Amino acid sequence: MTGMKGHAVAMPDGARVLIADDDPDIRDLVEFKLTQSGYAVEAVADGLAAWESFQAERPALVILDVMMPGLSGIDVLRKIRDSEHGAVPVLLLSAKSRDSDVDTGFAVGADDYVIKPFSPRELLHRVNGMLARAR
Amino acid sequence: MTTRQLLLGIELLVLLACLVLALSVIWSKVTRLRRERRTAQSLAPVRGALIELAAGEPGGLRILRSARGKTADAIDEAAVALLAKVRGEPANQLVTVLEDHGALERAKAEVSHRSPVRRARAVQLLGLARVEDSTALISEALEDEASEVRASAAYAASYLADPWLAAPLLRSVGTGEGIPAGLAADALLEMGVEIAPVLRAAMRNPAPRTRMVAAHVAGVGTFVQALPELRELIAADPDVTVRVEAAEALGSIGQDSEVELLARHTRPDQPTDLRRACAEAMGRIGSPLAHDDLVHLLDADDPRLAEMAAESLVAIGPRGMATLDGRRDEPAAGTALVLAALRAGQR
User: Fold this and answer.
1) Are B88 and A119 spatial neighbours (Cβ–Cβ below 8 Å)?
2) Which residue, B141, B196, B145, B207, is CA-closest to B171?
3) CA nearest neighbour of B192 among B231, B236, B222, B151
4) Integer distance in angstroms from the first to the last C-alpha of chain A?
5) How many CB atoms lie within 10 A of CB A3?
6) Residue A92 near residue A110 (C-beta atoms within 8 A)
7) What confidence tens digit (pLDDT) does each residue in A23-66 have?
8) B222 CA: distance to closest CA in chain A (Å)
């Protein structure tokens, strides 16, 4: 993906993205959108699997649903931030839309917070931007 | 018949009733699972195209639009679920699929179906699909006899975000087993500034829940036009919950001029919840004018009220902090100072 002159956005280059969401529709459509744009996507259905995958795969970016069985997205985010690779960009994708929910997400260390229903195109732009800034 | 035989007979009857109940639960679960499996099977050949459409790639749109029969039904069910998850152009494309399958027209007809479940589903779909000419139907549904239909209509109103629905929504929240207050408030907040006159009128509605929701929305949505009504509610509403909500709203949108009113309602002759809400609201306004009244509350009999006053003293700035510092050995002041230090450390 190339941006306009002076606003270049990095190419995905197969960068690994981990998406954790207990909703198969969300997992599948985010996986499709990002894969189509050149990312290598690992999709998991709960927080524990997300944490295990994060430790094993060391993705370049993590997308977490907030409300998941077992470990919540907030729990996983806390563990990520406390880990050796805690600087990885993390985007929270949640139906929880109150200001206090968003405040909590950022307070725990999220780099971005996208509220469902969301625009897949906008999500892709945010992922591109977060990775470009992280490089 | 002996007593023992009678007891045995009753036991057998209870056992039989339990068995029938267990069987009916199992039957309904099996039926639901079988239905879900059939729907998944019908959807399987086109689910990829549907997910792609929801992701913003309309390559399979023609196949989805031309589907008929069970496949179309399965697509419609999945598309409705996806409408709650995506917005923008993908959502518009999903709506065109539903239109082509006649699902939206059917939903309009089913708003008056005898089954409340069908009515609730129909109303939900009209909202999710943002069918603009369905506002009158949603308004009627807000007065439906079934609470699930009213709740579904409130949900639909939040999607339509049509200010015209504000009045029926506020009426509905106050009647009988009203729709959940949070759901109504969220829907009203989506409707924008145009609802200000309706909110102000709702604060004089006879139903306490209507007044409470209107006050809450006025605060969260920063409806400063409603300040006169909020003042009236704090001072004279017969329902303490409404007064508390009005105090919280005033704390969110009020300025220095509200401090005197709030302070008056922290006095011992006022209900405990209202005193606490007003003490907190003074801190949220953050005016130094509240200093003396808050200091007075540090000696309140209610320890929670004293704590809240101390926290509000922190919020009003250096003068409040200096006062707390001089009384740091008191529990309320000490706790507030520790919390303030922790918050400062986090920043």
Assistant:
1) yes
2) B207
3) B222
4) 15
5) 13
6) yes
7) 999 999 999 999 999 999 999 999 999 999 999 999 999 999 99
8) 14
Which site among B86, B89, B248, B343 would you substitute to test the A interface, given the most A Cβ atoms closer than 10 Å to its Cβ? B86
Q: Which of B46, B50, B77, B87 is the best substitution to test chain A (most A C-beta atoms within 10 A)?
A: B87
Q: Do A29 and B89 touch (CB under 8 A)?
A: no
Q: How far is CA B211 from CA A99, B206, B243, B246, in A?
A: 23, 8, 9, 9
Give the nearest partner residue to A117 out of B55, B78, B91, using CB atoms. B91
The burial class, CB within 10 Å (0-12 / 13-18 / 19+), for B153 is buried
Tell me the shortest Cα–Cα distance from B203 to chain A, in angstroms: 24
pLDDT digits (tens, 9 = 90+) for B73-130: 999 999 999 999 999 999 999 999 999 999 999 999 999 999 999 999 999 999 999 9
Cβ contact (<8 Å) for A36 and B57? Answer: yes
- In this prediction, residue A7 has a pLDDT band, given cuts at 50, 70 and 90, of very low
Phi, psi of B336 (to 5 degrees): -60, -40
pLDDT at res. A11: 58
Nearest to A117 among B55, B78, B86 (CB): B86
Domains of chain A and any CATH numbers: 16-134 (3.40.50.2300)
Whether the model clears a pTM of 0.90, i.e. scores above it, the answer is no
pLDDT digits (tens, 9 = 90+) for B187-221: 999 999 999 999 999 999 999 999 999 999 999 99
CA distance B291 to chain A (A): 27
Q: Which residues of B51-82 are buried (b: 16+ CB within 10 A; e: fewer)?
A: bbbbbbbeebbebbbebeeebbbbbbbbbbeb
- Structure-block tokens of residue B247: 């105090």
The HSE-up count of residue B284 (CA atoms within 13 Å, CB side) is 18
Please give the average per-residue pLDDT across B52-56, as a whole number.
96
Determine, for residues B51 and A25 on separate chains, whether the beta-carbon distance falls below 8 Å.
yes
Q: Which residue of B has its CA nearest to A120?
A: B55
Contacting A with CB below 8 Å, chain B residues are 51-52, 54-57, 78, 81-91
Is B55 within 8 Å of A33 when comparing Cβ atoms?
Answer: yes
SS3 B144: coil
Helical segments of B55-180, H only: 61-66, 69-83, 89-100, 103-110, 116-128, 135-141, 147-160, 166-173
Query: What's the farthest any 2 CA atoms get from each other in chain B?
Result: 86
From chain B, the residues in CB contact with A117 under 8 A are 83-87, 91
A29 vs B contacts (CB less than 8 Å): 51-52, 54-55, 82, 85-86
Residue-level pLDDT at A29: 95
Angle, alpha carbons B137-B140-B141 (nearest 5°): 85
